[in-house]
Design goal:
Radius of gyration of chain B: 25 Å
Strand content of chain A: under 5%
Number of strands of chain B: 0
Helix content of chain A: 55-70%
Number of helices of chain B: 14
Number of strands of chain A: 2
Number of domains of chain B: 2
CATH superfamily of one domain in chain A: MetI-like
Oligomer: heterodimer
Helix content of chain B: over 70%
Largest interface: A-B, 97 and 100 residues
Shape of chain B: flat
Distance between the termini of chain A: 26 Å
Radius of gyration of chain A: 26 Å
Distance between the termini of chain B: 51 Å
CATH topology of one domain in chain A: MetI-like fold
CATH architecture of the largest domain in chain B: Orthogonal Bundle
CATH class of one domain in chain A: Mainly Alpha
Largest sheet of chain B: none
CATH superfamily of the largest domain in chain B: MetI-like
Structural class of chain B: mainly alpha
Order of helices and strands of chain B: HHHHHHHHHHHHHH
Amino acid sequence: MAVPTAQVQPASVPLRRAKGPVSRGEPVAGYVFLTPWMIGFLGITALPMLYSLYLSFTDYDLFSSPHWVGLANYRRMFTYDPQFWHSVRVTLLYAVISVPAKLLTALGVALLLNRDRRGTGLFRALFYLPSLLGGSVGLAIVWQAMFDRGGAVNEFLGWFGISGKAWVNEPGTALGTLVVLAAWQFGAPMVIFLAGIKQIPPELYEAASVDGAGAWRKFRHITLPMLSPVIFFNLVLETIHAFQGFTSAYVVSNGTGGPTDSTLMYTLMLYLRGFQDFDMGYAAALAWVFLAVIGLLTAVVFRTGRLWVHYGDEA
Amino acid sequence: MDEHTAPRRDRREGSRRREWARTAAVLAVLLVVLYPLLWMVGTSLKSHTEVNNNVGLLPHHVTWSNYHDGWFGLSVSFGHFFWNSTVIATSVVAGNVVSCLLAAYAFARLRFPLRGMWFAVTIGTLLLPHHVLLIPQYILFKHFGWINTPLPLIVPKFLATEAFFVFLMVQFIRGIPTDLDAAAKIDGCGTLGVFRHVILPLCRPALVTTAIFSFIWTWNDFLLQLIYLNGVDSFTVPVALRVFLDSGGENSVGPLFAMSLLSLLPVFLFFAAFQRLIVEGINTSGLKG
């Protein structure tokens, strides 16, 4: 970092940058460069957030002015909006199943790919492709058709004599198709796993081989603990991502969250209340509860992470 | 070559067999993973009757009519929607690259009061779910009369609101030796000169990464476009696809697939062109797809 370059420069130059007086005009320049960010932060992030906090205590339909109702929105949410609790359940179920499914697939394929040989780069790229395309409307449309009665999935099951059904139209299985779509996009965490596996010193495996450890024990006692920071990173990222899922649920359910609310993800419900019912006050309250839950969840994940994440420098 | 040769050859044979099994497993998984994409291509080339009768991968008769039917499937042609999407995505690229670099330079290199606090705020907004801003921003932009225009999707990006890219660039600029700044200053460069002659040229990799992901994310984005664009003239490709899906009957599967495929094509081409860079980008920064 601090490469000595004093032979060619007056010693005062690096010193001044390090802790001397700030050069004249630099504070001004700093704020000049920061102006767009500052306008953005204050104008379309901070103040709108405060405004939405205010809105969450009002009844507001966009056309008449907001009408203060106190805690009524929150009371409605927690006590007499069955859809609220329902969508919380749907979102939790989606996250709890799709995140482990995605991460296990990612880890499995990463372990399969982890050999330096020709083609690994190409495979890595091809497995990654769904992560780029999977969040789009175009792909969700294909997904819906694939899991429909006459779709590719039923054809595949037909080979094994299993008669399929319209998976996207049944309350019991519609969310499952979204889980599969999420797991299909395992490429991004896989790439991160691959990089993590490459970081594990080969001496550890050699030493374990000398001690007579088999493949499973090496995986269990070297790969998993050494990879735990990466697993943790992926877990945090994917959990937050899963909670915000919207596009696939919207497209597969035709914007309703159906059949019978089985794909009513939280963000979809927020959208429907805000932009279909124009119940802006209630939607703002929903958004704030969402923010609080995501914050709480991140805190919990970080706290429990201490129990199982192993950082190399602690040992 | 001594008495160890025989067992070693044995072992090599075993490991070669394992190697084959491994490759076979990778290929099998790959086929499953890519099947939906291949199926989409195949189905988009099938005729109306074949779409309903043949669920397989390949069409018996290749027809391009779905592309024509889909392109003109709504009252406005898809060419218009592609144009709208392109305008928005390229504007967002320009906005993110310029505004995030300006902010990142200030955070990484300049000293001014409260810098630490503002940077902490930026990190804080990184984890903020956008949904909290959905409603108040909609009200704000409605006030400006921006509904049904691309402005709500573009203008915020010129104000460095993508904290992620600010963070990415700050990290990148921190890796550039400050000696270069000092040398430039001796040569008479001011704050602006250092930015222009040192930081800007050396930041190119970070700028390219930002540009690629800005484009792909904006191209794929749906929620914001759905909220702000509600007249058919202002539709982007995803919004148009969604309306097409809603309006179509039994016979629209082929055209719908054709247009879905076209909608994914720009992202795919970006991926093909910048594959290495994109995958490395994930590695170094945990970028999401």
